[in-house]
Amino acid sequence: MARRKDWDTYFMDIAYMASTRSQCSRRHVGTVLVQGKKLLGTAYNGAPSGVSDCSEAGCMLVEEFELVQTDGQEQVVKKQRCIRTIHAEQNLLLFTDREDREGSVVYVTDQPCWTCANMLANSGITEIIYHRSYPKDSEKVGALMEQKGIGFRRMEGYEPPPGTIADVHN
Ligand SMILES: [Zn+2]
Ligand SMILES: [Zn+2]
Predict the structure, then answer these.
(1) Which of 64, 89, 127, 159 is catalytic?
(2) Whose CA, among 28, 56, 105, 115, lies 20 to 30 Å from 85?
C-alpha cells in the first residue's frame, strides 16, 4: 500500500494540478485556499474570462531591468515578463469570500511576487506555503509577512505530481 500523503503534499499537489490550466507559455502558477482541511478555492494565472489568453494572442511582454546577485556580485539583467495574465493569487482573491479567507492557508506553486504578497497580506489569510522560490521579491515579501505575523514557508523536498510541470520559456 502506498504511503498516505500528508496534508501539505495533498494541497500542494492540487495547486500544481490547477497550474496546468494556465495558458501562459512563460509561467504556470496554481494556488488553493484551505481552511482547516477543507479546500475553499483554486486558481491559476490567466487572462480575464472571455478575453484572448496567451495561447491565442501570445504573451504580452514587457521588459524590465532587474538587479540580480550572482556569486556575490550585483548585476543588472534585462528580463521579459508577461503581463497579460492575472496572477493566480489575485484570481484566488477574486474568486473567494473574505469570510472564507479569515484564518485560512494559501498553498501556491510559486513564491508570490511583491504585488500578490501585498494583497494576500491584507486578505485575512494567516499562512502562505509555496514550493518554487522567486528570489527577486523574496526579501521584501519575507519581511512583510513577518511584520504581519503571517506564516511564510517553503515546502522543502517536495516533488510535484508527474505531468504538472510545464515546459516554460523564461
Ligand atoms: Zn503569457
Ligand atoms: Zn504575483
Answers:
(1) 89
(2) 105
